[in-house]
Every structure is written in C-alpha cells, then in structure tokens.
Amino acid sequence: MMRKDVSALIQRAEAGADLAREELACLLSLEGEGQKALFAAADRVRARTVGDGVHLRGLIEFSNICRMDCCYCGIRRSNRRVRRYRMTPGEIVEAAQSASRLGYGSVVLQSGEGDALNPEELAGVVREIKATTPLAVTLSVGERTREEYALWREAGADRFLLRHETADPDLFARLRPGRRLEQRLQCLQWLRELGYQVGSGFMVGLPGQTALTLADDILLLKRLNVEMAGIGPFIPAPDTPLADAPAGTAQQTLNAVACVRLVIPDAHVPATTALGSIHPRGRQLALACGANVIMPNVTPGRYREHYQLYPNKICLREEPEHCAPCVTALVLGEGRFVATGPGHSPRWTA
Ligand code: 5AD
Ligand code: FES
After folding, report:
1. Which domain holds residue 110?
2. Distance between Cα 220 and ligand 2 center (Å)
3. Which end of the chain is more exposed for a tag (fewer CB within 10 A), N or C?
4. pLDDT for residue 347
5. 145-187 confidence digits (pLDDT tens)
6. Does some domain include residue 179?
7. Domain count, the chain
8. Which CATH number fits the domain that encloses residue 176?
9. Residue identifier of the C-alpha nearest atom 14 of ligand 1
10. Do residues 250 and 288 touch, judged by C-beta distance below 8 A?
11. What's the pLDDT band for 349 if we cut at 50, 70, 90?
12. Is 344 a domain residue?
C-alpha cells in the first residue's frame, strides 16, 4: 500500500471507523514511518479515552497445577520437569492483603486449570479478600462450568480473564489438544451473562499464525466487546512441543497493542509481562502505543520460579516489595502516573 493510503487508513481508524480484516492486517504489518504513525494515533486515542493513569493489578499465581496440555505452555500437564505447587487459601488472602498495602487497587488470582483449590475454597478466598480489603478481584483460572463462574461471581469476584489465545479454530484445536475455540467462546459468553467485567486476548507469533489471523483476533475482541484485552508475544518454552519454534517479536506485538487501542478505544490494555520478558523496554514501549495497565507480580518469591509459562520471565527473583517501586518508576519514567482505586472499566463507572 502507498504511504498516503497508509496515513488515510490510520486516520480512519483513529476516527473510529470499522476496519475490514484486510485493512487491519495491513496496519498489523507496518514498519518504519507507518508504524510510528500507528503508534502515535494509538497513543492519542489512549490519552483521550482512558487518560494518563496506569492501573496496577497485582498478580497472584496461586497454583501451577494444570489438567490441560497446551502445546505452547510451560506448565502443561505432560511437563514432568515442573514442580507443582498450590498456595493455601490463607496464603492467597495474605498475598492479596499485602498487594493492597503496596498500593494496588486490584488483584488477579491466576492458576493452571486444575482443582488446586476446590470451587468452594476459591469462593471463600474471594469472599475473604472482598471483606478485608477494598480490592477489585479478578479471576484467571481457565475454562470452567457456568455454575462455578456463577458461584465465584456471587462470592464477589468482579472480573475474569480468559484469553481466547487464537481466533483460528484449526490452530486453536492443534495447540490445545482436546479443546475447541467454540467452547472457550461459550465460557466467555457465560462470564458476560453473569455480569463479570471480561478480559480476553491472544498471543502474537504462534507458529501457523498470519497477519489475517491476527486481524481476526482483534475483530473477535471487538465482537466480544471486552473490557480488557491482553496481548503478548508467544515465547517458546523448553520441554514443550513448540520448544524450537521462533518467538513472536516485540514489533509485531506492539502493532497488535496499537490496533486494539484503535479498534476498542475504551478497553483496558496491559503492557504484558511477556512483552517485558522478550524486550528490555517492552512494557515501556507498550505504554507509549496504547497500553494503560501493568500487572506486577505479587506471588511470594519462593513460588515464582515454578510458574514459568515461558522461559526468561522477568521478576523471578524479586519479592512483591521489589516490584512495586520498580513499576512505579517505570510508569513515571514514561511521563504517566499510577492510577489509584480499583480501576474498573470506564463503562462501569460512567
Ligand atoms: N508464551 C507466551 N505466553 C504464554 N501463555 C501461555 N504460554 C505462553 C508462552 N509460551 C499465555 C497464554 C495464557 C496466559 C496466562 O499466558 O495466552 O492465556
Ligand atoms: Fe518486578 Fe520491575 S516489576 S522488578
């Protein structure tokens, strides 16, 4: 496409026009000057819709026990090298309370897909956190039954993160043996019906993915009308079937972040840990092209090394008290400020 056409396309996207799949694929492939213009447009839309505040969500990785066998994931069931752990309900509540003391307005309770805590226990943890802190609580525990989602929602959970991973049904089925995209979309539908703020998202650079697949990923997020969209590079993990596949790049991932900001202007978009792990300034770059959320790790240090979905993850040797000032400095360094409060979707507070 000619340079003039690219700037016209970016202008239309910034003005909120619906883009065709091919047009999005074109934006996703931009390099050089075109990419710069895309990032600048996404940054303007971010400032206008969600402002300069960056929301911090403390991430508690409470168990790596998983019944699934996703080909990309370092804690997949067949990986015998992983030492499996579960935090006790008391430890999880304590981690949440310390996140609150560190100044975070919300926590994300994430685990593998397994029964490290039975559904009732997890509901109890949610109730306890809601009763003893002002935190918003997000769950990220995978594909579950509607009844379980309902139970946790009644216990007070505000949000749920369930990335769709890839919008290509064949690729999905190949990468997640035994599961289908359709089932995951059903889960997202239930979460929506139950009144959760819904987060989804995908990986960039999966083997077999194309610019058109990525365009479909973004159009799917738009159709789901997500409150949060998490996008990170695929990073090959040792002892998985994809160990030798190439990683997604920071450039591709940043293009996807910027496009999501243009297509879903008021979404919360994290500068992901995975992006920070493949590029020393990955999170900073994401903040400059559409992102407005960071999810600092608040998992106690002794568990962190066992929760490696991918290798060379940042902060593996840190404790929660180290990451808090580090992310604050990162945010201020980008000319932004740390937003206070639970950081609900603007759609919830408007
Ligand atoms: N590289 C990057 N991201 C990964 N995830 C899982 N495995 C990897 C990997 N190897 C992501 C998935 C999942 C989220 C918790 O982490 O998108 O939804
Ligand atoms: Fe953990 Fe920087 S965020 S050390």
Report:
1. 3-338
2. 32
3. C
4. 85
5. 999 999 999 999 999 999 999 999 999 999 999 999 999 999 9
6. yes
7. 1
8. 3.20.20.70
9. 163
10. no
11. low
12. no
